[in-house]
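Worked Example 4.2. Consider the chain below.
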Amino acid sequence: APLPEMGANLRESWVAFQKKARTNLGGRTCESLAGRIIPLGVRVGDNTGAAADVARRYYRDNRLGVVFTDAVWDAIVTGHGYVLTQDVDGRPVPTSERPEQMITIPDPLQPWRALAAVKAWRDKVKGVDYATVWAPGGEQRFSRDAKTAYGSFRGLSADGWKPLGGPVEYDGNVPVHAFTNEHGIGEVTPHRDVIDRINHGKLLRLVTVSMQAYKQRVVEGLPEQDEEDPVDYGKV
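Applying the procedure from the previous section yields the following structure tokens:
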């Protein structure tokens, strides 16, 4: 809930008090679902022979169980998770990418495949923004100054990007696979109003009890009796 205006010395204590009304129902919901989606491994044919051994080593060496679990968690929480496979010293290395930094144009027939993809991120230490663009058979990297001429960090914009080296060609499709939750939204997104209402109701009860903030009303000008019977307003 939005914090009311107050003195700087009171804000920290108010935030601590307000947190007592917060129940992380959204986190519990996502944890319950993500904990049931567990990758068991990979199979090649009847799972015997040299190809199966290579696949098992690839799964083990790249900790694919962790990579897939992270991508599934992102998809459940934000609606989208991404796995990127890059060439590192001549070997393919898959990584789970943050959904805030990655976006794809999905294949209409196979939405988990990407027709194109962009990853953009900021190095605050160096003060540089980086971006990588993938299309079928080609990759191009870009960079720009993360700060404006006035010294403040740039906002979201498409200005100032310059190629970082030349394009890199590769064989195959875009090396990004998307994990998309139902309707492309997080599990909690449609229910935020309900969670906010629960937390707000708890906060109101805490404020009322802890701060003795009971509302009292005074009514004047009432008749001393109702029809023929006297009214004891004290008991009322």
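The mean pLDDT is 87. The helical segments are 8-19, 25-34, 50-61, 64-78, 192-210. Compare this with Example 4.1 before moving on.
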